[in-house]
Design goal:
Number of domains of chain B: 1
Distance between the termini of chain A: 32 Å
Distance between the termini of chain B: 34 Å
CATH topology of chain A: Rossmann fold
Largest sheet of chain A: 6 strands, mixed
Number of strands of chain B: 0
Strand content of chain B: under 5%
Helix content of chain B: over 70%
Oligomer: heterodimer
Strand content of chain A: 25-35%
Radius of gyration of chain B: 19 Å
Largest interface: A-B, 46 and 34 residues
Shape of chain B: elongated
Number of strands of chain A: 10
Shape of chain A: globular
């Protein structure tokens, strides 16, 4: 990690009324890194991602994404990131391709750039034959695939994936990992993945373990396993909770 | 410009796809003309040289503006449920531009519906506005759509669910309609009700439409009641203030609440 960090968080925290969703997060994520935020439900993973994506305003602390302050330079942050949400973001009255075109326009992609990308993503995710069907008529798996494809469309420099594989069928799951692999190889995209599936964190460069709004452990998967004296990340998670 | 165009296009596609909304919005003024217009025309017969159905037309066009623009911008509440608001908030655009795009979408919908209805209604009741009259009426339609679309968006930004919708119908839509001069001249209202018309953007839009379409009857008290410059000024200020307010409210979205689910 010789380059400047893609993401720096210092004491970053968020309360929702009396609920402390994220306590105080210190984190450096390097450029081009494949980073996993691992933790059980309610650990604060989504809150952390939404703070970094400028969807939430922090209660405490600060953070920078590619050097842009998430509070003072939110627009610059949003210009450099992409986000696959855990929840749906599609307009159910529009077809898949209309939804993707809508997103392409929001990201200011000209049609000549957007159309080939949209077609390629629809092919990869097996959605080509469903492209003109309104989202409300699609199966849950197809909707989820379309939503994930939407998140990849803008090809940002930093890509947040919030529980991206939840609800994806195996075919779409493979399409997602292939897309991410290619984005990292071709464009050096920094990828931040939140997940509670341990096996998804195994191939990552480094892992942050969140538990009840706090950073419980941090390091490469190998380091974490060695420290906890186990052979799997699951063992690390269980050791933490001890 | 492309993000704004995208937001507006989405509103247009949605509207054209929701057939029920399309047909009811186009049929509504004709139902009013037929039922209310015919009934009131009998009551007012002989009291003036203006047929009530003619008097009603600017008000009915104003009604189309109101429903068209207001329902479009209130759909932002549905966006919050559907998650489209999440997408708008994470897109690389200023939150003020999100508000502006939604208001422009509402303006396009309110304006186009009102133009379609006006093209049928105006000749149907035998009104023959000149070029100046048409321009004034068009100004009333566009500025009215802008102002009411902006007001609707500011309202939507404070609403959490569509359950508040009937509240809006009862306390915003109906008072706005009945205190707009659409159905009777506002001068004839009692003092405190007349005071309410001054804070009703629809009243200024309808007034511009009356200036444009009922010019010949202005002297008998059935045309525009306020100066054209006042109408234009109030509608413009309302559009700017409400769009700015809505932009600020949308920007505050992430301050206190989770942006939809997750942890």
């Amino acid at each position: 990690m010789t380059t400047a960090p893609a993401i720096e968080a210092r004491g970053l925290g968020k309360d929702f009324g009396p609920v402390r969703a994220l306590d105080s997060l210190d984190l450096d994520i390097g450029a081009r890194e494949f980073f996993a935020v691992l933790g059980p439900n309610g650990a604060g993973k989504t809150t952390a991602v939404h703070l970094l994506a400028t969807l939430l305003v922090p209660t405490r602390g600060s953070a920078r994404v590619l050097g842009h302050d998430i509070v003072r330079a939110g627009l610059d942050v949003r210009r450099s990131i992409g986000l696959v949400f855990q929840e749906p973001t599609l307009d159910r009255d529009l077809s898949i391709v209309e939804n993707l075109r809508f997103a392409a326009r929001l990201w200011d992609l000209p049609g000549r750039l957007a159309e080939p990308r949209i077609n390629a993503l629809l092919d990869q995710f097996g959605l080509a034959s469903a492209r003109d069907i309104p989202v409300r008529a699609l199966s849950g798996g197809q909707r989820r695939s379309a939503d994930v494809a939407r998140g990849l469309l803008a090809e940002p420099r930093v890509l947040f994936l919030d529980e991206p594989t939840a609800g994806l069928d195996p075919h779409a799951r493979r399409a997602l990992w292939e897309s991410i692999h290619r984005l990292r190889a071709d464009r050096g995209v920094t990828v931040v993945l939140t997940t509670h599936y341990i096996e998804e964190a195994e191939p990552c460069d480094r892992v942050a373990l969140l538990d009840r709004g706090r950073l419980a452990a941090f390091g490469t998967p190998a380091e974490l396993k060695r420290r906890a004296g186990t052979s799997t990340l699951e063992g690390v998670l269980l050791a933490q909770r001890g | 410009m492309r993000p704004l165009y995208g937001i507006v296009m989405r509103e247009v596609i949605r509207f054209l796809r929701q057939r029920g909304r399309l047909w009811s919005s186009l049929a509504r003024p004709f139902v009013w003309l037929l039922l209310a217009g015919t009934g009131f025309a009998a009551v007012f017969a002989g009291s003036s040289q203006l047929d009530y159905r003619r008097f009603m037309v600017p008000g009915l066009i104003g009604m189309v503006v109101m429903f068209g623009a207001l329902l479009a911008s209130l759909s932002t509440v549905v966006d919050r449920d559907a998650g489209v608001l999440r997408l708008l908030l994470v897109a690389p655009i200023d939150r003020g531009a999100v508000a502006l795009g939604k208001v422009l979408g509402a303006t396009v919908l309110g304006t186009s519906q009102a133009v379609v209805v006006g093209l049928v209604l105006i000749p149907a009741v035998g009104l023959r506005p000149g070029v100046g009259g048409v321009l004034l009426a068009a100004g009333g339609i566009v500025l009215g759509s802008l102002a009411i679309g902006a007001l609707g968006l500011a309202l939507a930004a404070t609403m959490r669910s569509l359950e508040d919708f009937s509240t809006v119908m009862n306390f915003v839509v109906f008072p706005m309609l009945f205190l707009s001069g659409a159905l009777y001249p506002v001068q004839r209202l009692a003092g405190w009700l007349r005071a309410l018309t001054y804070v009703n953007p629809l009243a200024y839009g309808v007034d511009l439409l009356k200036h444009g379409l009922l010019g010949p009857w202005a002297a008998s008290g059935y045309g525009g009641e306020w100066p054209v410059s006042l109408d234009v000024a109030v509608l413009s200020v309302c559009a700017i203030v409400c769009t700015t307010l809505a932009g600020m409210l949308i920007a505050r979205e992430g301050l206190t609440s989770r942006v939809g689910g997750g942890s």
